[in-house]
Each structure stands twice: as C-alpha cells, then as structure tokens.
Design goal:
Serine Threonine Protein Phosphatase 5, Tetratricopeptide repeat, Transferase(Phosphotransferase), domain 1, alpha+beta, 3-stranded antiparallel sheet, 5-stranded antiparallel sheet, 546 residues
Length: 546
C-alpha cells in the first residue's frame, strides 16, 4: 500500500530502487537489505505461525517488486490463504495508520470480481502484511503465454469483469495502481469463467500523491511516474495496456530496460501505436484502446463504468455476442444503459432463433411420428374384437383420426399407386388384412364403419371439426421480440427528443415491459407519473401486484 519503496518490477524479475530521484538498476532482490526472506531471516520460517495471528506460512509462491507472496492456511478453520509480506518497513505511526486505513478499505470491498482481503497487520520487524483468499485458477499472464491472443468475444467478457472489479475498488476510494495480467486471475465459478482482481500491495487512496515511484514498468501510468494525484483513470491506463496484450498476444512495451519503458510511457505511448494486421482487431476497438492509453488523463474514459459502457458499445458495433451473457449492464445513465440492452438483445436474437428453429423441427418430427402411428392403428387390426365399440370424439383441441388420416394423405405422392401409368387397384373390403407390398390407398371417412369378426360391427363415427379447432387454424400473429425491440428503439428515440413528454415515457415503459424488463419499465412509469400521467400510475400499481 502507500509508502512502498520505489521499486519497478520488470518482466524478467529484476528490480530497481530510486536514489536521489534517479533510477538506478540493481541486479536482483538479493541486493536489497529489506529482510525480504522470511524463512531465512529468523523472523518467520515455513511452517511457523505468524506472530499475533492464526495464519501459518506453508510455501513461497512468488516474488514481486512490492513483496513476497506465500501460501498459508488459517490454523483453526483450515482455510487456504495467500499471505503477502510487503518489503516496506514502517518506522513511523503516520505510515502505519495510512496502511491500516487503506487495508480496512480493501477488506470492505464486496465484489465477485475482487479477491477477499481477510486480515492485515505488521510484523515485529516493521514489515507490513495482509492475507487474501487463495484462488484456484490461472493468472491471465499464464493464459496469454500459453494460448497467445484471445478471441474477441472472450476478451470483451474478461475486460468487462476487470472493469467491474476495479469499479468496486474505486467505489471504496482506492486506486489499485498495479493492474497487470499477473494480478488478474481466471477461476471457474460453476461452468463459467470469472476474472478476479488480486494484490492490493501498492494501492493508494484516490487523490493521493505517491511518495515514491511504484508500479510495474510495462503497465505503469504517467501520473505514477510523475507522482501526481491518482484517480480511477490511473487503472484505466493500466487496463488499456492489458487489453492490447489480450487482443494481440504481445506486450505493449517490449523495452529491454526499465528506463526505456518508463520513457515510452512519459512520451505518450498512444502516438504511433500499431496493432498487428494479423490480430484482426476492429477499428472501433483500436480507437478505444488508444483512448485508454492517452498521456493526458482527461482524454481517457473517466471511470471504469464509462470504459465498460464503451466496451459494450464496441462489442455491439462489431456484432460479437459475449461469452458471459449474465453480466450486469454498466452503471451509466439510463438512456445509454437502455441502448446497450437493446444492442445486446439484437446480438442474442439470431442465436435464439436458431435454437427455436431446432426445437420447432424436433416438434414437427414428433408430430409426424404420432400421425404415422395413428394411421397404422387405423389400418392394422392385429386382434379381431367380438364386441361393438364406438370411438367417441376426443377433446375439441385434438383433431379426429379421420382428420389425421386426411392430413397424411393430402400429398398426391402418398396416395398414388406404386406403378405409374397403371390403373388404380380395386378397393378391397374394409375387413381384409393389408397385403405386404401392396400400395397404400386412402380410406374415405365413410369406410371407417367396419365389420369385425362374424357377428358384431365396430363403428367409428367421424367427428366434425370443432369450433375451437377451426379457430386454432386461423393465423394469429403475435408481436415478436424483434417487433418489441423496434418499438423500444422508437420509444427511446422519442424520449430523447422530448424528455418532458409523459406519453413518450409511458410508451417506452410499455416496450420495456414487453421485453420482460419490469424494473426499467417501472422507472419509465415513475417518470411519466411525475410528469402527471395517470395511466402511468395505474401501470405502476399493476406492476406492484405482479
């Protein structure tokens, strides 16, 4: 957290401190006399419990510029945790209180896209530490190294989840300051991939001026280097660096030294930024990444919600359906949010039509099979009956056996003799058994009165089409979701033209209600009610009744 020494981590694990304002490269962490080897310093050994806690240190996981991460567990609960011991040695009460205040903020973040910070404190030798939930997943850096660039649909979903996690962090008054693929972990929640933001080791309060340069050279923002005030746009810049890497499979800054990497950021990395042609990144996505990487923070998206909304709009413009349809829409103004919802509905409509088409085809096959079984039952009588049976009409919604038979025999190729050009075969008696190989000939409804056995007839009375069946045959066209979406677009356009029109808000509410978005519809009804619409009040009461 604040007060981390001026270390910049490079891709090969080397680091540099700052001496008299001039970066000086050093060989490795071993050159730092900060007591960063707990298992060898005598303070903490692997398998020991940290002083004053119920956390046991089990295994060293990774090293970073800010500190060392260990795998541990809660002694009594048996819960696995990740313990990060910072390299910073706190020697004054002011730094200690600042760390504790921001650690409390980190523990209060409640988001499925942010790791749980469980505990925090200070070791007897002055080093700070905090413990967070241990995630069973891969860092985005490992995924990119293994798979290369990501498909656009997956990249959009992961970037939106990162925006949500960082937005929750900013809502608590904190800037992460170290957004990079190593700190974005992908885990499985059910059958869905979920991104979680981790590592708040160098986080700062919004509006703070860092006393030293802290961050990772490939992803550090210019204001972190200038030590100017930090705000959410600092993390927007770092996430833009991550987005470039996700879309191209390459590092944005591939400089060999820390000094050159820092110089690239200070000079304005958006100038001359090139996307590989083989990456196939759409122009609207390139423009959005350049906005995130602007040297001037005022030219970047102002917040993570704004960035997520821009990502959604770019996704809609590209016509790419998301891999995570369950993500909440970004928290932006209602008109923009509703426009994004309409765009996403348009992306999902073709998929739903394809699913609906397969279901309709399966239903048609089932109906054909049932019809064929009915016809066989009418023509094949495996066991003669010696009693009179009258087949009564079924419910009005079911067609008669004769109607089913007529429906099957309407096609001429089914009723035509097998050998074309020959005369129609003579109608055989109804009670005669069918001959194998004989062409099928339709039976008239009058022939359904048949004699079974030697004495008693079997009577099948033809049923007249019921009124409800005739009504069901009429063509009734209900409004489709596409029509409802068009109505929603027109209504939203009318609201934008005249926000003070109560009727326009009512129409927009009706369209949203038709799409199943009752909460959005209720907002429009409330606005119309505020403008004096009694119809909106009635609709609100109807929504409240369910």
């Amino acid at each position: 957290m604040p007060g981390v020494p001026a270390l910049c981590e490079t891709s090969d694990g080397s680091a540099q401190p700052e001496a008299d304002g001039v970066p000086t490269p050093i060989a490795s962490y071993a050159d730092l006399d900060l007591g960063d080897e707990p298992e060898s310093s005598g303070a903490i050994r692997l398998g020991d419990t940290m002083p004053g806690t119920r956390l046991r240190v089990l295994e060293r996981l990774s090293d970073g510029a800010a500190g060392v991460v260990f795998r541990g567990e809660h002694v009594e609960l048996g819960r696995p945790v990740a313990i990060k011991i910072l390299r910073r040695v706190v020697r004054c009460d002011e730094d200690r209180e600042r760390f504790l205040a921001e650690a409390r903020l980190a523990t209060s973040i409640d988001s499925p896209h942010v790791v749980d910070v469980i505990d925090f404190g200070q070791l007897p030798d002055g080093r700070l530490w905090y413990a967070m939930g241990l995630l069973d997943g891969d860092a985005l850096a490992d995924v990119l190294e293994r798979e290369g660039r990501l498909p656009l649909a997956r990249a959009f979903s992961l970037l939106r989840m990162a925006c949500k996690g960082l937005a929750a962090t900013h809502a608590k008054g904190m800037v992460h300051c170290d957004v990079k693929p190593q700190n974005l972990v992908l885990v499985q929640r059910g059958r869905r991939e979920q991104l979680v933001v981790v590592d708040f080791g160098i986080a700062h309060a919004i509006g703070a001026r860092p006393p030293t340069i802290c961050g990772t050279p490939e992803y550090i923002s210019p204001e972190q280097i200038d030590r100017s005030e930090l705000d959410p746009r600092t993390d927007v810049y770092a996430l833009g660096c991550c987005a470039y890497e996700m879309l191209t499979g390459r590092l944005l800054v591939e400089e060999t030294t820390v000094e050159r990497a820092v110089t690239r950021h200070l000079e304005g990395i958006e100038h001359g930024l090139m996307f590989p042609v083989d990456a196939g990144v759409p122009d609207c996505v390139e423009a959005l990444v350049r906005r995130c990487l602007a040297r001037d923070p005022a030219k970047r998206p102002a917040s993570m919600a704004e960035l997520e909304a821009a990502l959604c709009e770019a996704q809609i413009a590209c016509g790419i359906a998301s891999t995570r349809e369950d993500l909440e829409l970004p928290e932006v103004d209602r008109v923009r949010r509703d426009g994004i919802a309409i765009g996403f509905a348009g992306l999902l409509a073709p998929r739903r039509r394809r699913v609906g088409g397969r279901a309709a085809f399966g239903a048609a096959l089932s109906a054909m099979a049932a019809t064929a079984l009915t016809v066989l039952a009418l023509h094949v009588d495996p066991e003669p009956m010696s009693r009179t049976l009258e087949v009564a009409p079924s419910e009005a919604t079911q067609p008669s056996a004769a109607a089913l038979l007529a429906a099957v025999t309407e096609k001429p190729e089914l009723a035509r003799p097998a050998n074309r050009g020959q005369a129609e075969p003579a109608a055989r008696p109804v009670d005669a058994q069918p001959v194998i190989g004989e062409p099928f000939a339709p039976l008239p409804e009058a022939a359904l009165v048949r004699t079974v056995g030697a004495s008693e007839p079997l009577v099948a009375t033809p049923r007249a089409p019921a009124r409800t069946h005739r009504a069901a045959q009429r063509k009734v066209v209900a409004p489709t979701r596409i029509d409802q979406r068009k109505a929603k677009q027109l209504a939203a356009r009318e609201v934008r033209r005249d926000p003070a029109s109560a009727r326009a808000h009512v129409r927009l509410g009706d369209a949203l209600r038709g799409l199943g978005r009752t909460q959005a519809a209720a907002r429009q009804y409330r606005e119309a009610s505020r403008l004096g619409s009694r119809a909106a009040e009635r609709k609100l009461r109807a929504l409240a009744r369910g």
